[in-house]
Structures are given as C-alpha cells and as structure tokens.
Amino acid sequence: MEEQFDEYDAARERRQRRLAEMKRKKKQQALFRKYFRFGAIGAVVFIAVLVVLIGLVIIFKSQLTSLVNNIFKKIVSQSNSI
Fold this sequence. Notes:
This protein is mainly alpha-helical.
C-alpha cells in the first residue's frame, strides 16, 4: 500500500515538473516574440542599437569615468561627514 502512494507521489511530481517546464518555455517564447516580433528586421534594429550604444560608450569613455569618479568621491566625502 505504501508503495502505491510513493508511485503516485513520484508521478505527480513528474507531472508538476513537466508543467513548470512548459510554463517556463512559454514565457521564454513570449519574451522572444516580444523583442523580435518583426523577424529579421527586429533583430537588425536590436543589433544596431547595441552597436550605437557601445560606440557612444567608447567615444565618451573618459568623460563617463570622470563623471562616475566624481560622483563616488562626493558620496564618500558626504558619508564621512555623517
């Protein structure tokens, strides 16, 4: 009798895992469709935006690092005064 309950629990666990996996796959597919709903055009636009952002970071690298350093210096100096 105890073995039947163990088999039942194991089968129920397998069904729950399969259901969770199916839900996870559906979420992934929905996310993929959201960002690439226009097919290849969406992928090209996404890559172009990434290239532009990376280019801007490279161009303004020194300005960005000095800005971040100044912000952290202010944070440290103000936190020391507390």
